[in-house]
From TrEMBL:
InterPro entries: MFS (IPR011701), MFS_dom (IPR020846), MFS_trans_sf (IPR036259). It is a multi-pass membrane protein. Coiled coil: none annotated. Keywords: Membrane, Transmembrane, Transmembrane helix. The chain crosses the membrane at residues 67-90, 110-127, 139-157, 169-187, 199-221, 227-249. GO terms for biological process: xenobiotic detoxification by transmembrane export across the plasma membrane. This is MFS transporter. The keyword Transmembrane applies. GO terms for cellular component: plasma membrane. GO terms for molecular function: fluconazole transmembrane transporter activity. Its main location: membrane. It is found in: Membrane. Residues 68-306 form the Major facilitator superfamily (MFS) profile domain. It comes from Aspergillus flavus.
Length: 306
């Protein structure tokens, strides 16, 4: 029951429903938080910094019930597998693209190349977005899966090669969420002694994608005798992962969890002094500037790290 409550309350579905209903659905017990938490004295600016109650705080992802952590972890494994399989699934479709649009081998292969290039670029933007306390990880997962689904549908309906190539690039960019954020989410969900096993399974799911993708792609093309069948299959998988992450992937970013806790305390107690550490550190930081700064740091790390 507690696991179900976490899914309903902290998934993107629960957060949106709580916001739309103005707290009537999936509300938190603020009075219990005030009883349990030893709130510090106001700082020099009169702010009370809201943090986790203790290392055993139930809102910390690695303190969730085992079932909730397992389901969240399996969601991430499925995301990782489906995205890595997507690039390999496209391989059997190259000959179909060449035949339908009269493309050369180089042009037919370009769609796959652009897809791979895009999912190398995607993390430079998507990870900084997922690290924003005001946004968190869940919306990035859900919107990335949804965009990936829509790009695949539009690619299947494309009437010329140029449209296919452009949409393959944006599909790779939008779908790169698992490789952008997956490792960070696993680290937040599992304890340090559990994390090596979780990341090992995560790596295996990524390896299985390219191994099984071409086999599955060939079977699909042989069954429906069209290269677009692969894209419809990818769209179906992406639609499933969109629904799965929307309902069953709770928020794991601690800064976002604490920011929402501070907001609830302000609203339900009427005391404006409650703030999270993230609000105090960057209360007026421009969103675009922060994203650009994080992208710059990630690019430097990618290029300069030995």
């Amino acid at each position: 029951m507690e696991s179900l409550n976490i899914f309903l309350r902290d998934s993107l579905f629960g957060r949106l429903l709580n916001y739309a209903s103005k707290g009537r659905f999936f509300s938190y017990n603020v009075s219990q938080t005030l009883e349990d938490e030893e709130l510090p004295s106001p700082n020099s600016q009169g702010q009370i910094i809201v943090g986790f109650v203790s290392p055993d705080d139930k809102d910390m992802p690695h303190n969730w019930p085992a079932l909730a952590r397992m389901v969240a972890g399996l969601n991430l494994l499925l995301l990782n597998f489906s995205f890595y399989a997507a690039s390999a699934l496209l391989t059997p479709s190259i000959s179909g693209i060449e035949e339908e649009f009269g493309a050369t081998t180089a042009e037919g292969t370009l769609g796959l190349s652009l897809f791979v290039i895009a999912y190398g670029i995607g993390p430079l933007l998507l990870f900084p977005l997922s690290s924003l306390p005001t946004l968190g990880r869940s919306p990035v997962y859900v919107l990335g899966c949804l965009a990936f689904c829509l790009f695949n549908i539009r690619t299947a309906l494309a009437k010329n090669l140029q449209t296919v190539l452009v949409l393959r690039f944006f599909g790779g960019f939008a779908g790169s969420t698992p490789i952008s954020v997956g490792g960070a989410s696993l680290m937040e969900i599992f304890e340090p002694n559990e994390f090596p096993y979780a990341i090992a399974f995560y790596a295996v799911s990524g390896v299985c994608g390219p191994v099984l993708g071409p086999i599955l792609g060939t079977l699909v093309i042989e069954r429906w005798d069209t290269w677009t069948a692969i894209l419809w299959l990818l769209s179906g998988i992406a639609a499933f992962t969109t629904v799965s992450t929307f309902f069953f992937l709770p928020e794991t970013l601690s800064e976002n969890i604490l920011l929402r806790r501070a907001k609830r305390l302000r609203e339900q107690t009427g005391n404006p002094a409650y703030h999270s550490e993230a609000e105090v550190q960057s209360p007026t930081t421009n969103l675009a500037l922060r994203i650009i700064k994080d992208m710059d740091n990630n690019l430097k790390l990618a290029c300069l790290d030995p």
